[in-house]
Amino acid sequence: MTEVLDPGGLVVVAGAGGFIGGHLVAGLQAAGARRIRAVDSKPIGQWHQRPPEVEYVQADLRPADACYRVTEGASYVFNLAADMGGMGFIETHKADCMLSVLISTHLLLAARDQGVKRFFYSSSACVYNASKQTDAAVKPLREEDAYPAMPEDGYGWEKLFTERMCQHFTDEFGLQTRVARYHNVYGPLGTWDGGREKAPAAICRKVAQAKLGGLKEIEIWGDGEQTRSFMFVDDCVEGTLRIMSSDFADPINLGSDRLVSINQLVDIVEEIAGTKLKRVHNLAAPKGVRGRNSDNTLIAKRLDWEPQVTLEEGLQKTYSWIYDQLASGSHDLSAYR
After folding, report:
1. 7 pLDDT exceeds 90?
2. pTM recorded for the entire structure
3. Catalytic residue status for 128
């Protein structure tokens, strides 16, 4: 694990109660950070992870005063806070997603005014121009492919706008910012039902439900030929720390460059589970762009690194964890029939 810049400096993680944020807090501890303030709007008992020896703060970061309060004394700020989810959520909550700009704006202002040394922003592959993602055999997206701007409506626009804010806060105010464009992060301890889950977690859940509930089929959103690349959360954390510690200040891809279709993703999970299911394609469901993949040329060149965990390894861990959640008896399998 990459070492943090200053192990004794106070690190603030906004969005720490979420999936990636929880893993990042644990990763920061493993990297040597001794002072971590973890912040999220959810009640602390509902956070995905709560590592020991961390200062936990429940706060809605949309108001400016909350951002100034939680960044007091901070050396580093990681902003992962956003109202978001999988495609089923962001396509039906565009306004909610865009309101996250209040968090980003006020955290940047607070970081500037309170002398924060470095500010990390978790952007998204949803910033990329939609016209470059119309083919399942998509050409890997390079960082410059975000322009001319035509991002995912709502969520993507908010992410791209905040990227620009980070750049201008660096240029005009001297706040050192780092921006990573996350590509489809998945893994254990994440959201796997309820409507905010992403494709890997949703498919792992559906296959596990079939195994445990005696079902013989699985619903796939779209025709299943839409393509994506998926990054395991451990690689996301390692890449985030490397980017934060680097001297590279422009937005940079952080994702796997292995392109697979949703049908191929189901194939892998079925093999892990030891089952084969009839596929029912819901062509009316949200599908997003036709194809999206990460070009990792820049991160390999500038950081001499790129994600390492194979899709099979990551899905094995994710499926096993979700299966255990369902098998524990805390979920009524009849609700999924």
Report:
1. no
2. 0.94
3. no
